[in-house]
Each structure stands twice: as structure tokens, then as C-alpha cells.
Specification:
Number of helices: 16
Distance between the termini: 59 Å
Strand order of the largest sheet: 1-4
Order of helices and strands: HHHHHHHEEEHHHEHHHHHH
Strand content: under 5%
Helix content: 55-70%
Shape: globular
Number of domains: 2
Length: 393
């Protein structure tokens, strides 16, 4: 898939872009909350309370898909381990939420979470220290996946691991974390994970107002993440990333540091995935090792492929559309969901490799080319005879 080179900064942040951005933000952050608060839930246009966290979950998935599109669509790095960064950010948030339970747990222990009391922990592990304060948990949401991605990327990119080999080791990475977090002695709740949250920043997580606030936070987070990704892809670094994707060896020959470019964008992508996971956990009420499943990371790649790689907007659309289909199919005909997902991947690879956004762009270009311009629609001018014919006449 060929992505056109980013245009100059003054052509990117146009009034038309900001108008569209504001309209989408108003619909997601204003209209939907208004329909939830001011319209009766049994009304055809009302948004019931149970749909608010569901929409928030879709937005977190959209941010996760966009983070993968940043490295896959623009830098050509197919990471099959982005679910790990999403889960690490989610666990950081889950640890903070567990520490807020205090003595309100089943065993009424003010220091140890319930699963630690059940597993006969004598004291709180050192890596849980500080998570009773949001001021400590918030930077950990960014630092843990970011630092993990930085170390992993430095080792991989410095060794010039590329292509399918990089995809395999990223999948091996998330598989190793999946197995590790299943262990009870890791101190993260084992296969049950972290759940039974009570409040966040003093607000009851079960209240509709809190869930609406988390949804709005997801809207804001998605908007900021989109602006960050757009500013990267439409900068000089964005042009370097496209060159990394299309002709990495030539870029090295020209003297560019390919390793630094890859490492930077890979780390930023992991941070965005971690933030998405942190916003996701309080809205669904649980985080467990299943989020590390390699199948989840493959599904993220399908979202991006369906929406359209190298577009950012396509990743958002793909994540929302595929998860809408998943919500409906797993409730109506759950036995065909995996077949449907596999068919989507095959179709997005063979039939429409540019995704939904690519199909829309292709159709709009075809429509413009089929419309005759003013000169083509005018009557043809009479052709004057050559000068020699005039002289003979």
C-alpha cells in the first residue's frame, strides 16, 4: 500500500480539518452524553447507561488500533505484541484501583488486596508501593509500557531485526508475558486478574455519572492521541518513517539513523497503547492475563487492516466497525464469530488491501475522473486547415 508523502505543516492543520475535528468531538463528547442525560432511556434516540461504557470501550480500542497503525502503516513495523502494552497500562491502572478498595474488600484487610490475603501474602510486594496514590499510578501507566517497548525495541532494531522475524518475536514477547501473569506468585492476581473495583479518584466506579466521566475521558484521550499521531506522521519524521517502510536500506545509505526513528515511534506507540489500556480497565471492571493473549494482538492488526493502514482514521473506523460486529455476532450467532473474523482478514488482504478508507478514496477519485470538466463538455472547435492547404486554395 502506497501512502502519499505527508504534506507541509501549513497544509495539514487547515480550517477544514479543525472544523471536522470539532464536529466529531462535539458528537462524541457532547451529543452522546446529552442523549444519555437528557433523553429517556426507552426513547429510540436515548443512550442507556449500559451503552456508555460499551462506547467507551470502543474508543479505547480505537486508540489502541491507531497506535498500531502508527508503527505498521507508516513505519512498516508489524507488531503482533501491541496487546501486551495495552495490558501493561491496564494492569497499572488496575493496581491503583485495587489499592483504593482498602478495608472494603472481602477479607477487610486495609493493606493487602483480597487475592493476596487468599494466597497468604505476608506483606505488600515492593512493586505495589505507591499505587495507592494516583499521582504515582499515572506516570506508571506511561512509563511501564514505554520503558518496556524502549528496551525491547532497542535490542531488536539495533540488531536490525525486521519483517516477519520482528513480528514473530513481538508475538513471542506477549506470549511470554501471558504465561508469566497467569502465575499466582507473580503478585498480579493470577488467572483471575484484578477486579472488584470500588472507586476512582473518590468516585464510585459503578455510578452512571462516573461511567459517563470515563467515557468523556476516553473521547479526550482519543482526540489527543490522534493529534499526536497526526503531528508525527505529517512532519519530517513522518517522511523518514515512510522511507523506512518503503526503502530502509536506501535510507541507511543516505546517513539517516533508522534505529532511532524506529525506536522513537515504537515507544510512542506503546505509550498510547498503555494509556488506552488504562482508560479501558475502569470501564470494563477487570484486567486479567487474557489481555496478553497473542490472539488479541492479531485481532488488533485485523482492525487496522480492515480500516486502512497508513491513514489513522482508518484504524479508528476499523476498530469500531469490527467490534460493533463482534458485539452483535457474539450475542446472536457466537459460533460464527471466528470464521467472520478470519474472512475479514482474508478479504482485507486479497480484495481490498487499502481497507475501508482506501475504498472510499478510490471511489471518490473515480467519481471525480468520470465527471467531464467544462472544456470537455463544451462543443469542439472547428479544426483549421493547415497553412499549405490554405495556399493551394
Amino acid at each position: 500500500m502506497a501512502t502519499p508523502p505527508p504534506s507541509a505543516g501549513r497544509a495539514v492543520w487547515t480550517p477544514l480539518f479543525w472544523t471536522g475535528f470539532a464536529i466529531v468531538g462535539l458528537v462524541l463528547g457532547g451529543v452522546i452524553p446529552l442523549l444519555n442525560l437528557a433523553v429517556a432511556h426507552d426513547s429510540p434516540i436515548g443512550v442507556p447507561d449500559y451503552l456508555v461504557p460499551l462506547f467507551g470501550k470502543y474508543l479505547c480500542y480505537a486508540m489502541l488500533a491507531m497506535s498500531l497503525d502508527l508503527v505498521w502503516g507508516y513505519a512498516g513495523i508489524l507488531s503482533l505484541g501491541h496487546g501486551a502494552f495495552f495490558a501493561l497500562g491496564g494492569y497499572a491502572m488496575g493496581m491503583y484501583l485495587m489499592r483504593q478498595i482498602g478495608a472494603r474488600g472481602v477479607y477487610q484487610n486495609p493493606t493487602l488486596p483480597d487475592f493476596m490475603v487468599f494466597l497468604q501474602y505476608k506483606e505488600l510486594p515492593w512493586f505495589w508501593w505507591g499505587f495507592d496514590h494516583f499521582a504515582w499510578a499515572a506516570p506508571m501507566i506511561v512509563l511501564v509500557p514505554g520503558l518496556f517497548a524502549f528496551v525491547f525495541g532497542w535490542l531488536a532494531f539495533r540488531s536490525r531485526v525486521t519483517g516477519v522475524y520482528l513480528s514473530i518475536i513481538t508475538q513471542a514477547m506477549t506470549y511470554a508475558l501471558w504465561l508469566a501473569f497467569f502465575r499466582n506468585d507473580m503478585g498480579f492476581g493470577g488467572n483471575n486478574g484484578l477486579t472488584d473495583y470500588k472507586d476512582i479518584l473518590g468516585w464510585d466506579v459503578h455510578l452512571p455519572q462516573t461511567r459517563l466521566g470515563l467515557y468523556i475521558a476516553s473521547v479526550v484521550g482519543l482526540g489527543i492521541a490522534y493529534l499526536v499521531c497526526r503531528s508525527i506522521t505529517h512532519s519530517k519524521l513522518g517522511r523518514v518513517l515512510l522511507a523506512v517502510r518503503d526503502a530502509e536500506s536506501r535510507l541507511r545509505f543516505l546517513g539517516y539513523s533508522v534505529t532511532r526513528a524506529k525506536l522513537f515511534v515504537f515507544t510512542v506507540s506503546a505509550v498510547l497503547a498503555g494509556i488506552a489500556g488504562a482508560l479501558y480497565v475502569p470501564q470494563v471492571g477487570i484486567i486479567n492475563p487474557s489481555e496478553f493473549s497473542p490472539g488479541n494482538s492479531i485481532e488488533i492488526a485485523i482492525w487496522v487492516s480492515v480500516g486502512g493502514r497508513g491513514t489513522l482514521v482508518g484504524a479508528i473506523l476499523g476498530a469500531v466497525l469490527v467490534n460493533l460486529a463482534k458485539t452483535w455476532l457474539t450475542g446472536a450467532v457466537p459460533e460464527i464469530w471466528l470464521f467472520f473474523l478470519g474472512s475479514l482478514f482474508v478479504l482485507s488482504t486479497l480484495v481490498f488491501p487499502s481497507g475501508v478508507v482506501g475504498l472510499v478514496n478510490l471511489r471518490s477519485r473515480a467519481r471525480r475522473s468520470s465527471q467531464p470538466d467544462a472544456e470537455a463538455g463544451a462543443a469542439p472547435r472547428p479544426v483549421e486547415p493547415p497553412m499549405a492547404a490554405k495556399e493551394q486554395a
